[in-house]
Design goal:
binds fructose -6-phosphate, seven-stranded antiparallel beta sheet, globular, alpha/beta, eight-stranded antiparallel beta sheet
Amino acid sequence: MCGIVGVLGQNEVAPLLVEALKRLEYRGYDSAGIATLNDGHLDRRRAVGKLVNLSDLLVHDPLAGKSGIGHTRWATHGAPTLTNTHPHRAGPVAVVHNGIIENYRELRAELASAGIAYHTETDTETVALLAQHHLDKGASPEEAARATIAQLEGAYALCFLFDGEDDLLIAARQGSPLAIGHGDGEMFVGSDAIALAPLTDRVTYLEEGDFAVLTRTSLRITDAQGTPATRPMRQTHIDSARVDKAGHKHFMAKEIAEQPTVISEALGAYLNGENGTITLPEGGINFAGLERITMVACGTAYFACVTAKYWFEQLARLPVEVDVASEFRYREPPITEGTAALFVSQSGETADTLAALRYCEGEADIILSVVNVDESSIARESDLALPIHAGTEIGVASSKAFTCQLTVLLLLALKAAHARGHLSEDGLRAYLVAMRSLPGMLNEALGIEEDVRGLSQELSKATDVLFLGRGLMYPMAMEGALKLKEISYIHAEAYASGELKHGPIALIDEKMPVVVFAPKDALFDKTVSNMQEVMARGGKIILITDAAGAKDAGDGTWQTIIMPTIDPVLAPILYAVPAQLLAYHTAVAKGTDVDQPRNLAKSVTVE
Ligand code: F6R
């Protein structure tokens, strides 16, 4: 989603702004722009499409200036056109915005009645027009920005640049993340610390309602009540080098291939090799005292939670409720005593998940999060944040973050099972030994890639695909369907295999590929019965199973993919690989933009 940068520099800022925007590309965007104070006067360059279009424009039409703001836009209000591209300008004010101004229609109507016209379809232009309106009435830039913000409802991270004010940036946050970077005689603003990494490793995160006035040598913050506030400066540990594809055609391919390594790192962070126990960050979790866990997340992270529900309930006998964040936050569910609230998020900035976390504050016994970005809002606002150690994930479609989330969630479930007396020392040790073999097994599983590549050529011709699974393989079917639709744009749906007869079987004909996840576990025979029902109606089965499963049920399938044999409890972590590879190679066969699929954003910071 939209990314923001701002620089009060000692040198020309246009290249710094573009570089910082490149580091925000992973969030997803469809146009980009920058504004600087060129000889004290506002000027801007904007381009639709990829950042390279903006860079090319700047080669032919450079922008001078030592202070500036920049933006990558993921369209919400108004199409991705040049007119709607940020920075938005109204006379002496330029502004960049991430979020949604919910009352922009009312504000526009007020401006219109004062004779002020607007020229774009965006909610953001209203912010620039309001600031200009206040300046026209004699307000200083700071007063104009404050008065503007007081009128806004909704979510925003904003950065203002004013004509003639070469040593001033104003930033404000409500609902969308914003970080301030400290340099030597320089000051920066960014949607996250990743954007600022080449510029500084000293970062202050603004809190909800904060308003910040920056010069090159000072930072003054006031809180939502207008009271001066001090926010800690943190040292970040983000690599300033931009992550590259390491020889792969796409980031997603690299991230799929990295899974053995990152899962090994996640295991190393939580497993105590000497005594075979699971170590949690300081504070820990009193699993024995819990009555339930409420898990909340979006998209792929939600499917990680659904998988974890099976683990916690079966292994630890701990009831789990799982919700998508956008439903949870407005349903007003009661949070009763003994509840741990657990939020799973790769980015740690997903607006709905963060809002759900805030809903549980003061209600749940403990707020836990499983995050990849350990300096994110969700991590910072949790009582205990559990990092997944996946490393930066650039591909918009989550792959390695999903398997690392599963790894950490399984470790938690095992720890809970042991703490609640449902798993002996020996039993725990046996699971941990099995988990230590995961990186090797993932390497082996990646060996199916050639088979999947061939199959994907055929799959790319389909218009609809069904995914089926039972037990732990049901959430895997959901994740497989999501991956396929988001990067190949093929319509895909997932069902619990047992649900097939209750409706979806009507869809089956000889054109319908059906992907079945079925390792030879206790539920295998039941899934195979459902599979036979599909084959009897001409459906084309892609069976993903192990050697024993293939021997028993591989006859008559369209294709059988044979996975390494694994303990059924650990199978979701391994079976994510074929789900990812199938989607990836189908998307490559279709020639879609795998890393930045249309309409999608990596970090969904608006609801
Ligand atoms: C799918 C995908 C999304 C995210 C979802 C939540 O491949 O990546 O569905 O899982 O937007 O994002 P996070 O995990 O950052 O909260």
